[in-house]
Design a protein that fits this description.
Bound molecules: zinc ion
Helix content: over 70%
Shape: elongated
Structural class: mainly alpha
Distance between the termini: 22 Å
Number of strands: 0
Order of helices and strands: HHHHH
Number of helices: 5
Strand content: under 5%
Amino acid sequence: MTCHEPAHPRASRAARASGTPTGPIEAAEAVLRRERDRTVALVDGLAREFERFVEAAELVATDDEHDPEGHTIAFERQLVAARLRDARAHLTEVDAAAERLAAGTYGTCERCGGPVGDARLAARPAARTCMACAR
Ligand SMILES: [Zn+2]
């Protein structure tokens, strides 16, 4: 990570004057947009994968319910379903983070009210709490 230093207010004013969106809020917006795009693509991919498992399970079910392959498919389908749930939950978190950004509370820990921290936000843009409160 190279962005441990908080953006200097004078630097962001200069950036705004030159028309380059490099202020802390603009930067967070860009990160959240990328995170949202990535998560939407992930949800789409997992949803398609899940559909294939449903179809595969239906084919196996009509064949032989004691087929060991049926158990493997059921297990893998559960894994995909769990990842899909996680990805959708993450999408909700990313949207909630975008709302906090609009409300001006982005980057503030929801539990202690302290800063979430730039390094943590860089790693987890949708984080609601600081490192200490996340434990
Ligand atoms: Zn906290």
